[in-house]
Specification:
InterPro entries: DNA-bd_HTH_TetR-type_CS, Homeodomain-like_sf, HTH-type_TetR-like_transc_reg, HTH_TetR, Tet_transcr_reg_TetR-rel_C_sf, TetR_C_Proteobacteria. By secondary structure, the protein is mainly α. It folds into 2 domains: 53 residues, Arc Repressor Mutant, subunit A (Orthogonal Bundle); 147 residues, Tetracycline Repressor, domain 2 (Orthogonal Bundle), CATH 1.10.357.10.
C-alpha cells in the first residue's frame, strides 16, 4: 500500500512539531523561543502561529503525542485462552522498550519540568490523558470478568503495575539520569514484576 502523501500544510505542521520538540528538549519550554522554532522549521513565524496560537498550545500538542506513544505501547487485547503471564509480559516488554528510548526519556524530562512550573498546563495535560481509557485497564477488567483475576479496581491494579515498571525503567532515568536499561535488565524486571503482580491478583484454581 502506497504511503499517504502529506499536504503542504501537514508537512509544515510536522516540521514545526519536530523543531519545537528539539527546542524544548534543549532549552525547556520556558527558555524556548517561537522565533527559533520557526527558524528551525524553515517556516515563517506567522505560519507557526497559524498552526499553534501559543507556545503553550504547541507544548500541549507535543505532550499529547508523547501520551499517544504510551497508549500505543499499552494497546492489548485480552485473550481468554492465553496464559495471563504471557499476555502481561508482552505488554510489559513493549512498555519497557518505550522507556528505553533516549528521545522518549529526554522529552518526558522536559515535560515533567514544565509541569512543575505551571499547574495550569499540568491540569490541562492530565485532563486530556484522563479522556482516554487505558488498554491495560480494559485488559484487567476483562480478566476480572473472566474470573481469572480477583475482583478489584482495575485502575488501581493498573497503576500498581505501571509504577512497578517505572520504578526501574523510567523514574531513575528521567529524574536521576541513570543509564537506560539493557534488554537483559528489562527482561529481568518484567519477569519478576509480572510474577509478583499475578501472585497478588491471579485467581488460583
Amino acid at each position: 500500500m502506497a504511503e499517504k502523501t502529506l499536504t503542504r500544510s501537514q508537512q509544515k505542521r510536522a516540521s514545526i512539531l519536530e523543531a519545537a520538540t528539539n527546542e524544548f528538549k534543549e532549552r525547556g519550554v520556558q527558555g524556548a523561543s517561537m522565533d527559533r522554532i520557526s527558524e528551525r522549521a524553515g517556516v515563517s513565524k506567522r505560519t507557526v502561529y497559524n498552526h499553534f496560537p501559543s507556545k503553550e498550545e504547541l507544548f500541549l500538542d507535543i505532550a499529547n503525542s508523547l501520551w499517544q506513544r504510551v497508549k500505543a505501547a499499552e494497546s492489548m487485547e485480552y485473550v481468554s485462552e492465553r496464559p495471563l503471564a504471557e499476555q502481561l509480559k508482552g505488554f510489559a516488554l513493549a512498555t519497557m522498550n518505550l522507556y528505553a528510548v533516549d528521545d522518549y526519556i529526554c522529552l518526558s524530562r522536559c515535560i515533567l519540568a514544565e509541569y512543575m512550573h505551571s499547574e495550569t498546563l499540568a491540569r490541562q495535560a492530565m485532563a486530556k490523558i484522563s479522556e482516554d481509557d487505558s488498554g491495560l485497564v480494559r485488559w484487567l477488567q476483562a480478566g476480572i470478568n473472566d474470573k481469572r483475576l480477583v475482583s478489584g479496581d482495575p485502575e488501581f491494579m493498573a497503576t500498581q503495575l505501571i509504577y512497578l515498571l517505572k520504578g526501574f525503567g523510567f523514574w531513575p532515568q528521567a529524574i536521576g539520569h541513570s543509564p537506560l536499561l539493557t534488554p537483559e535488565q528489562q527482561q529481568e524486571v518484567v519477569e519478576s514484576t509480572i510474577a509478583m503482580f499475578l501472585n497478588q491478583y491471579e485467581l488460583k484454581e
